[in-house]
Amino acid sequence: MQDLSLHLLDLIENSVRAGASLILVTIEEHPEKDLLRLLVEDDGPGLNVAPDTALDPFYTTKEGKRTGLGLSLLRDTAEQAGGSLALRQSALGGLAVEAAMLLSHVDRIPLGDVAATVSSV
Predict the structure, then answer these.
(1) Which of 37, 70, 114, 118 is geometrically suited to a Cys-Cys bond with 10, CB 3.0 to 4.6 A?
(2) What confidence tens digit (pLDDT) does each residue in 34-76 have?
(3) What DSSP assignment string belongs to 58-114?
(4) pLDDT tens digits, residue range 96-107?
């Protein structure tokens, strides 16, 4: 993807498709720690498979599709910029997807227009 806001859009769409009624998006920049953190949490049903399975690019819950690239591409994007991706239960009751990466890493893609992306949902 061209920018991180498109990854956020994918995560938000996944939450909506899963039936979440509350979605919380958190973006934190910590220049003193050289850290960029993206967190999307929801109150949906959460994962019904192990995180490793959900991160497999050939796993999807969408009918008619044979791949589920969103999470695996975000993981690759985070790792390429010196970071990581974690899946866990959200404090809201559903899924929390957290991507962390080095803010100054030369391979970190731009954040993009988050306001426009979120408002398009």
Answers:
(1) 70
(2) 999 999 999 999 988 888 888 888 777 766 665 568 899 999 9
(3) T---STT-S--HHHHHHHHHHHHTT-EEEEEE-TTSSEEEEEEEETT-TTPPP---H
(4) 999 999 999 999
81 half-sphere exposure, CB direction, 13 A CA radius: 25
Task: Output the six-digit token pair for 115.
Answer: 């306001």
* Joined tokens for residue 40: 């999307």
Q: Map residue 121 onto helix, strand or coil.
A: coil
Please give the C-alpha separations between residue 64 and each of 31, 51, 116, in angstroms, as whole numbers.
43, 22, 29
Q: Quick check: 98 and 86 in contact, CB under 8 A? A: yes
Q: What tokens were used for 33?
A: 């720690």
